[in-house]
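#data-curation
PF: Archiving a pair of folding outputs for the training set. Convention for this channel: one message per protein, sequence first, structure tokens after, nothing in between. First:
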Amino acid sequence: MTNPKRMKSAALNILFVVMPILSGIFLGLVCYIQPDAWVFELLAFAVPLVIVLNLMLFLSSLFWFRKPAYLILPFLSFALIYKPFFETLGCRLGMADNEAGFTVMSYNVATFNPSRMENKQSDSLMSSSFYHWLRETNTPDILCLQEFYHSDLADFDNALDSILTIGEYTYFYMNPVYKDEHNGVFAVITFSKFKSIKSGSLVYGDHYLNKGVFHDFVIGSDTLRIVNFQLNSMSIRWAWPDTLSLPQKLAHNATNIYQRLQSGYEKRHEELNEIEAFLDESPYPVILCADINAIPYSRTYQRLKKKYANAFEQEGCGLGYTLNRFPYYVRIDNQFYDPKLKLNYFKTHTGMKVSDHFPIEAGYSF
């Protein structure tokens, strides 16, 4: 017969010895050591689950403190969640300070229609909803848009003139690419209420949507450089081809996502190498408004974090997820800023749903 005491002891050893060791190794590799291999960026999607697991193990181990081994390993593993925990959860204390010297918003508008690439059609309701939201919102002093779309064929597609008028912006700069099949231009664009003394394009990568622009704005007696860009996509999209059975659909999506993640990881690092070289030459404090297409535990995010502070981590509240589609629980849109600047507040506008991303807004002061 099976010995109940042995079974209980084996279960406790698995729970409080084996699992903390495995989760500790996982967190150490993915969140701290971060080997330069794309597979670790894939594994990083499991970090939130491992954080929850470690919290549960640590709390459970407190009930078994009579055996030190059952407390030590869960505690050590629990200590490793400190860094990824605060990259996942914004823990601002107190009320947000909505007063700021100037405000900056970053938003991947997904061409004002996330399905445009498939059906090549515009959606007047989405464009109109965005314009209405701008009218009802205190428009930011600086508005950085990725995957911007503009066309002169319809009033609702005339995004450039509409945003300039509604937002009362006096300046804009973009790097447009015209696409015949869509009858319009795609670009990364920045609108501003401040005077610009210098602007230019960031040239990198090989896709017309992955682009960037920079601007040197005079704000009062100070000068600030805004860098607005998008890195190569993660391309995590779940498709259901009608011609395939359920097992085939699952296999199709798994293979497709696997290949896209690998390719995206390699391209993002090539793009970031070129962008970092440009950032290092900036004569002014910098704010980065970017869809980096990488989660906070990735090498891409950590490379930027070594140079700049992250607005969400400093003043965010809650989970701050910015993707409005599968896999939902990721934060890939960010504002990084020079620590010489003061961050007054940060917010994610989850009510704005004309895109498959959410806008992020922050207030700063010199």
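PF: Second:
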Amino acid sequence: MVKCDTCGVETIMPFKCNYCGKYFCEQHRLPEFHSCTGAYAAAKPVIYQGTYSSSGGSYNYASNRVIRSYWFSKRELRDLAIGSGIILLTPLLRVWSFFLQEPAFVSVYLVILMLAFILHELAHKFAAQRFGLWAEFRLSATGILFTIMSFLLFQTRLLPIMVIAPGAVMIAGMMNWKESGEISIAGPAINLAQAFLYLAISLIVPDALIKALMLAGVAVNSGLALFNLIPFGVFDGEKIFKWDRRVWVISVAIAGIMFFFIS
């Protein structure tokens, strides 16, 4: 186990800060929560300052709100491109022979996988930026490993859903539980919206091949939403549950029905 560089608590799964390179527990993983002295402290933008305060869990805090319009940094665009490439190449290596026979089918399926991941992360990013928070996507070595392993286990039916998470949106700034919940629900919500769209297309289009692709899109997106709605740890569900249990229950019910009964 590794000790948190802020509070000294030992943790099995420490978080490494992308800016200062130190390791922290879940509570202090964000740059704002461990007074990061790395690149984040020097580069974070402050256009408007207003005092906000909130409390939750085992700590209280008050800080300045950072206001920014929607934007992407060069590093973020690079990480998004690499993450998308991993999602495209990992299954392609597994089904390369089938790709040679049905290139259109495989290509559309890979695009469905990539959109499920990209739109999920962008939903978190834009929701956070709407509240004036700093938010950027970052690759994760652990996430890349989980993505590759989960795909292999899913193909052998040892895992019911794929874990598509080569990285995540890092958010910094002070927020209350309502804002945290709304930012967290944005990701699963966009996946459920995609699942509904694919389901509608599958009901309208009679072609069997297209129907199979659309139902695969329902399974991928509802499965990703359901996985992220797990109500503990670093998952979206933990923050949604603390914010509004009704929203969490409804979201889990919709995702569960679409994944287990429709797809």
